[in-house]
Structure prediction request, 191 residues.
Amino acid sequence: MSSLRITLLYGSYREGRMGIRAVKHLQKELEGQGHKVTFVDAMAYGFPILQKRYVDYEEGSAPKALEELHDLLLKGTDAFVVVSGEYNGTMQPGLMNLMDHFYTEFFHKPVGLVTYSMGALGGARVSMHLLTTLCVFGMSPIPTIFGIGTLQNKLDEDGKSLDEGLTKKSAQFIKELTWYGEAFKAAHEKS
Prediction:
């Protein structure tokens, strides 16, 4: 098994964000399997509501943060993991805004979906919206969607699993993401 460069995308701006637990959990588990993980937090970037995409800037004139993120997404990522809670049946606006600043950077790369909620459904409704949106960005979602219901009872504040079933689901999700990531990486290296 090769080491993959995996970028975790997360877009909650809410006070007391619970999804950060899922991010921490996945980052630890992926790194534990030898992958290089970069966490991209939309709130930390704080991009304004989309006015100008990266591609709309003259070469060399994009803001530094936008340029660095462009390079990471395009050249420094073999696979993505998108972590999103459900906001009125759709994805987090911060995540959508972050992604809207880019486009071709996401092409031909696998993506794993991790959805969550405080209730039992685990973000099931947002997963359908994410599938459509991520395909428009040219990404290839892996078949398994890792939904985490009642997140507050399944992961502690440091991302440690409190539930054996979640631990098993997490391992299966990572195994599948790794398989797709390695396959896409090999295809990119070949072409």
The CA atoms of residues 3 and 176 lie 14 Å apart. The chain has a mean pLDDT of 95. The longest strand covers residues 139-148. Residues 164-190 form the longest helix (27 residues).
